[in-house]
C-alpha cells in the first residue's frame, strides 16, 4: 500500500514537470528561433525577428487548432499557463475557444486596431509629417477595403486588394503601406487579437516584379565642386554661406540649418543625438575655411548659426534648395553634396572608405562590428576634412 502510494506520488511529480517545463528566467533569455514546449499544449514560439509569442495547441470539435494567446512582452509565463488551462477546458466541454474569446475580449476591426496601434506608437515618432503619412495612407488605401473587417479574419488576399491597385503606379507608397499593415498585424498577434500568422508575410513576392525605381539624390560631380564653391564665395545670397558650410562639413542640410552656437566649441561642432539621423551624437571637425564662414555669421542671431528670414527661426530647406537649383539644374539637391564628398574620397584619395563613412556619420556594419568600433576617428577625420576643404577652395585661391 505504501509502495503504491509512493509510486503514484512519483508519477504525479513526473507529470507535473512534463506540463511546466519552462521557467521565467529561461523564457526571458536570448533564445534561438524555434519552438519551446511548456507542456499541456503550451508553446513559446521565437521568430527570426526575436519576437516571442505564446501558442496553445488543442482539439476543437475534432479539429486540431493552434491558438495564439499573445506576446511574451504582454503575457507572462503564469498568465500563459492560465490561458492555456481556460482554452483547454472550453474545448474539452465542446466549446469554441476562439468564439468565446471574441465575446469576452472583443476583437477590434482593422481600422480600430490601426488607430490604437498609432496612438501607442506615435509618441516615439519624431517627425509630425511621418505621423500624418501613417494615417493618410491607411485611410486612403486600407480602411475602405478592410477597415471594417475584424483583425483576426483578414487574410493575405484581402491585404493584396489594398496594395495591388497602386503597386505599379505608386510603388513607393504601396510598399510603405504594406510595411505599415505588417506592423499592425504583428502588433495584433502580440496583443492576442489574432491567432493566425501575419497576412503580409510573403505577400510582396506574389505581386508583379518591377524594375528598380530607386532614385538617388542628384549630386554634383566632385570635380565640379571647386568651381561651384567659387561662385558661392562671390555671392551675397542669404543662403550661400549655409550652402558653403554644408559642402565643407559633409553634414546633412537639416543639421546645418538648425546648428546652434552652443554646439560649437573651438574646432569642434557637436551635433546632439536627437538631431542626427542615426540618433547618435556626432562631432564634426571645423576646418579653417569653415571657421571663416562662422566668423561671418556671428552676430546675426543669438542662438542659430544660420537663421532664416523670420526671427528665431532657422533657414528653410526650400531656400537652400531653390538657390542651388537656380545656379545648377532643377534636379540638383543639397543632400547630394554628401555623395560628391564620398565620390571624391574614392576617386581622388583612392581609399580611406571607413574614415569617409565616419565623416558622413554612417552606421558601421553589424552589431558585432559596432561593439568594437567605438572611436569616432576624430583626428583622422580632421585630416580628411582639411584635405577636402583644400580641394573645394582650390579655385578661390
Automatic annotation (TrEMBL):
<dbReference type="InterPro" id="IPR002104">
    <property type="entry name" value="Integrase_catalytic"/>
</dbReference>
<feature type="domain" description="Tyr recombinase">
    <location>
        <begin position="215"/>
        <end position="386"/>
    </location>
</feature>
<dbReference type="InterPro" id="IPR053876">
    <property type="entry name" value="Phage_int_M"/>
</dbReference>
<comment type="similarity">
    <text>Belongs to the 'phage' integrase family.</text>
</comment>
<keyword id="KW-0229">DNA integration</keyword>
<dbReference type="InterPro" id="IPR050808">
    <property type="entry name" value="Phage_Integrase"/>
</dbReference>
<dbReference type="Pfam" id="PF00589">
    <property type="entry name" value="Phage_integrase"/>
</dbReference>
<feature type="domain" description="Core-binding (CB)">
    <location>
        <begin position="108"/>
        <end position="189"/>
    </location>
</feature>
<dbReference type="InterPro" id="IPR010998">
    <property type="entry name" value="Integrase_recombinase_N"/>
</dbReference>
<dbReference type="InterPro" id="IPR013762">
    <property type="entry name" value="Integrase-like_cat_sf"/>
</dbReference>
<dbReference type="InterPro" id="IPR038488">
    <property type="entry name" value="Integrase_DNA-bd_sf"/>
</dbReference>
<dbReference type="InterPro" id="IPR044068">
    <property type="entry name" value="CB"/>
</dbReference>
<dbReference type="Pfam" id="PF13356">
    <property type="entry name" value="Arm-DNA-bind_3"/>
</dbReference>
<keyword id="KW-0233">DNA recombination</keyword>
<dbReference type="InterPro" id="IPR025166">
    <property type="entry name" value="Integrase_DNA_bind_dom"/>
</dbReference>
<keyword id="KW-0238">DNA-binding</keyword>
<dbReference type="InterPro" id="IPR011010">
    <property type="entry name" value="DNA_brk_join_enz"/>
</dbReference>
<dbReference type="Pfam" id="PF22022">
    <property type="entry name" value="Phage_int_M"/>
</dbReference>
<protein>
    <submittedName>
        <fullName>Tyrosine-type recombinase/integrase</fullName>
    </submittedName>
</protein>
